[in-house]
Amino acid sequence: MREVKVSIFGFGTVGRALVEIISERPRVAGVEIRVESITDRSGTVWGDFDPLEAKEVKENIGRISALGDYDVYSFKPQELVEEIKPDILVDVSSWDGAFSMYEVALREGVSVVTSNKPPIAEHYDKLKELAEESKAGIYFESTVMAGTPIIGLLRENLLGENIEEILAVLNASTTFILTRMESGKSFDEAFKEAKSLGILEEDPSKDIDGIDAFYKAKILHWVAYGEPPEKTERVGIREVKDAKNVRLVARVSKGEINVKPRKLKENSPLLVSGVYNAAIIRMNNLGELVLKGKGGGGRVTASGVFTDIVKAALKFPSPR
Ligand SMILES: NC(=O)c1ccc[n+]([C@@H]2O[C@H](COP(=O)([O-])OP(=O)(O)OC[C@H]3O[C@@H](n4cnc5c(N)ncnc54)[C@H](O)[C@@H]3O)[C@@H](O)[C@H]2O)c1
Ligand SMILES: N[C@@H](CCO)C(=O)O
Ligand code: NA
């Protein structure tokens, strides 16, 4: 059994769901996962604490520093890796600037697992280079479609294909809002309901204005083509009046991404509802491949993060 020490950065909806799944499945595929530290904005707990007790304290008191009987450290994010030296850094925070922390981790040979999109969307080439230099890995399944495995599908498979186009509904919050508006709810009523599901970003304008879907489309472009897009367009859902069969659709093709509301045909695989995402991948040999699955929610996202932790522990290669 190979024990891996993980440092969890961020302890919100996804981070707390992750410690639940780790407690349910501590040993998988010859890997034993040990939570070495957990960080939120109030500090870092490190050592022989019970992650489920930390989850209770976070949920009841709101900050992990209230976990009594354990030392609480106030590491800067970069210090965290240098002091704790985990095997794997798991970022489940909403810190857009987390790239600087990943850079330190990868240079130290610490693999990075993340569900946080901006660092991957804005710095994929540099992160890949750092990972290759230090024989660490960068894994980000849950940045796109949460635990639904579109990233693994593209990074580890389809290597004989030209990816001609990807059309996808990648944001669960706007799908939820649009489907509630279809059934007669106002935008504001639907927005409030989405908030209660725990799928909205810490800054919900990222969902509404298409920024979250745009980050995800950019990540798909990086993985499919190994470069950033030159041509981009982004329109959110604030101006949608008739929501019937409308979804926020991302289109990715070589050199170009756009995100905008589109009215879909009744039989379109993209006409998803609730927290479901869907993607149509068009290729030269395989033709059309459709992937549909949940794209939001704490455990849905933590599931993809968990798989990436095991892949990182096994030093799973990612050709793309
Ligand atoms: N919830 C989902 O369905 C889902 C799905 C896919 C990806 N994600 C992504 O996963 C990440 C976590 O999502 P969530 O739903 O748990 O969000 P959340 O808002 O519930 O939790 C984010 C946590 O990060 C913490 N944080 C932010 N900046 C920090 C910093 N500088 N230092 C320490 N802690 C910091 C916040 O305090 C918060 O506790 C986000 O990047 C989100 O975009 C979420
Ligand atoms: N806010 C995001 C969470 C999943 O990335 C969404 O609604 O899809
Ligand atoms: Na995914």
TrEMBL record:
Pathway: Amino-acid biosynthesis; L-threonine biosynthesis; L-threonine from L-aspartate: step 3/5; Amino-acid biosynthesis; L-methionine biosynthesis via de novo pathway; L-homoserine from L-aspartate: step 3/3. Keywords: Amino-acid biosynthesis, Methionine biosynthesis, NADP, Oxidoreductase, Threonine biosynthesis. One of its GO terms (molecular function) is homoserine dehydrogenase activity. NADPH binds at residue 117. NADP(+) binds at residues 10-15. The keyword Amino-acid biosynthesis applies. Residues 149-310 form the Homoserine dehydrogenase catalytic domain. GO terms for biological process: methionine biosynthetic process; threonine biosynthetic process. L-homoserine binds at residue 201. Residues 10-141 form the Aspartate/homoserine dehydrogenase NAD-binding domain. The active site is at 216 (proton donor). It is an enzyme of class 1 (oxidoreductase). Its EC number is 1.1.1.3. Belongs to the homoserine dehydrogenase family. This is Homoserine dehydrogenase. It comes from Pyrococcus kukulkanii.
